[in-house]
Amino acid sequence: MAPYHVVLVHFPIALWMTATLAIVLRAFSTGALARTVDRALVPLLSVGLLFGVIAFAVGLMVWPLETISASALGRNHILGASWTVACWATVLFVRWRCGEAVWNGISRWVMAGFALVGGVLLGITGTLGGHLVGIYTDVSNVLRLLGWDVYTTYYVPNVTLVIIVVASVLLLGLGVWSRSKKAI
Fold it and tell me: pTM of the predicted model, to two decimals?
């Protein structure tokens, strides 16, 4: 069953990375290509979320929670996967609920910010999963430079907490500011 998880995770990775590029393109452009890519965004995000949830569930079926949570690397992988699915579910909900209005004003930059956060979370989660099956990347060296040893550290490093708080405040501030500009 483990190979199924390994195969399944590549679908949300490909779909969400494509969505990241599509959102960033749409945030920076109002051209015909960007608008055409945007029309495919909700289905793209929906299929990505479906495969992400399936891959998450299969992963929990393959490696029982008691087993995977016995190591810091396993706990970080589950935490990263949870954050990644939650982030992309949020992006899907916002894009679906707001429609094309999400690309008006400052909210386009909020969407781009969420997409970039989702892409980074996806990369970190994939790196941790790769380490669990013996495939190592240089991303773990970057994480180590930021104070996070993927093999022993089970916490969010202070630098990461600061980045999360600053990004959250900026994104919330941009959302409130954008909403107040609409009211005027």
Answer: 0.80
